[in-house]
Specification:
Elements: H1 2-18, E1 23-31, H2 34-44, E2 52-56, E3 62-69, H3 72-80, H4 84-87, E4 92-96, E5 106-109, E6 118-125, H5 128-138, E7 146-150, E8 156-163, H6 166-173, H7 178-181, E9 186-189, E10 202-204, H8 217-220, E11 225-231, E12 236-243, E13 246-254, E14 257-258, E15 267-269, E16 271-276, H9 284-294, E17 314-318, E18 329-331, E19 342-344, E20 348-349, H10 352-368, E21 374-378
Length: 379
């Protein structure tokens, strides 16, 4: 009798400590292919707290399991602590007669922190078209890929860039254009990698400029004169250099010009000053117009970087006048989606990167030659 008691006590102790010889895990997902199992891991298992196994079953399907336990009780305890995003998949305890880590048809998934699941959230929209519109309006001179996702809240999110770490994403925020910063962008952590095409509705590739190669500053100053011509019908601006009496086409820009019902400056003129990163000094008439039509209270001086600084990255003051008013400029914009249309109050609007390029060239030219050698023709 004593030996029987000792035997059962030993059996109970071994079961308690070493388990019952079975292998217990949590069944999480059953897919037709291995890619589907990997997709589940990327989307729902951000930073696993236990081993993950992908098991190829006899019917050819793939089972994703989570955890490795020597008793059903320990598996149940682990399952109870799962986050809600995993519980919604209704996991259950699955028993095996062998340890999955040693089975030839099983892959132990090693979690690599190389998923690009950090991004910059710029806009949140109820409709897909508005998410796309956000890219055009608030992400000028796109420096990285943009992703449109439909989030768990049912809204479409416009995400800018894909990063491996929070630090990389935070560093990228500091380089954003002011118009992008006006939207209050923030680092968003996703439960999946944006590098997997199944995780986004659309990916918008980094825009490549179709313009000619950047103009060499040293070559630019060799021209005897510079001519800037603007056609308000086609919304195009051409930049020419005059050398030995011959015009050389240097670059063409798409611009916005005056609204059709607005008096616009016309004819030949020049420039009076050039400013990079300019303040804006709206007229009293403009301040009253903003208050009346947009319910915006403009200050008398709108600093560079302010969301309502309509000068953008640079302004080039012109000599042209309309009805005795000399308030016309070539400048940037807070809304690049208006470029190519009749949108302004008389000024010539350009994309911010392009007006900055032009202003830098003209500033350097006027320093080496003279501002009087720059002609501006408005048609």
């Amino acid at each position: 009798m004593y030996f029987l008691k000792l035997f059962f006590a030993s059996l109970f102790f071994n079961t308690l400590v070493f388990g019952d010889g079975k292998f217990y895990t949590l069944s999480m997902c059953l897919t037709k292919d291995h890619d589907g199992a990997s997709y589940f891991l990327n989307r729902y298992l951000d930073e696993p707290e236990a081993d993950i196994f992908i098991v190829k079953l006899e019917d050819g399907r793939y089972l994703t399991t989570y955890g490795s336990f020597n008793s059903r009780e320990k598996a149940a305890e682990f399952m109870a602590k799962l986050p809600e995003r995993l519980k919604q998949h209704k996991p259950f305890i699955k028993e095996f007669d062998y340890n999955l880590a040693h089975a030839k048809d099983t892959q132990k998934y090693i979690f690599h922190k190389e998923n690009f699941n950090y991004s910059i959230s710029v806009c949140s929209s109820k409709e897909y078209k508005n998410a796309i519109g956000c890219v055009k309006e608030y992400i000028p001179n796109q420096k990285s890929e943009v992703y449109i996702i439909k989030d768990d809240d049912g809204l479409y999110k416009t995400l800018y860039g894909a990063f491996q770490t929070h630090q990389e994403a935070q560093k990228f925020i500091k380089t954003l254009a002011e118009v992008t910063k006006s939207q209050g962008p923030f680092v968003k952590k996703l439960p999946y990698s944006l590098k997997d095409k199944r995780n986004y509705s659309e990916r918008i590739l980094k825009r490549e400029s179709n313009q000619k190669k950047a103009i060499d500053v040293n070559q630019f100053v060799k021209f005897e004169k510079i001519v800037i011509s603007v056609d308000s019908k086609t919304h195009k601006m051409s930049l020419q250099g005059i050398l030995d009496g011959k015009a050389v086409e240097l670059k063409e820009y798409k611009v916005s010009t005056a609204k059709r019902d607005m008096p616009k400056p016309l004819g030949e003129g020049g420039i009076t000053s050039i400013s990079l990163h300019p303040h804006w000094y709206p007229t009293q008439e403009t301040i009253e117009h903003f208050k009346k039509t947009k319910n915006i209270n403009l200050p008398s001086v709108v600093p560079y970087g302010h969301p309502h600084n309509y000068m953008g990255e640079a302004k080039i003051n012109l000599t042209h006048e309309v009805d005795g008013k000399n308030v016309f400029r070539i400048h940037g914009t807070v809304n690049e989606s208006t470029i190519g249309r009749s949108e302004s109050g008389g000024c010539i609007r350009m994309k911010n990167a392009e007006v900055a390029e032009l202003a830098t060239l003209l500033q350097n030219y006027s320093d080496k030659k003279s501002m009087k050698n720059i002609k501006v023709i408005l048609n």
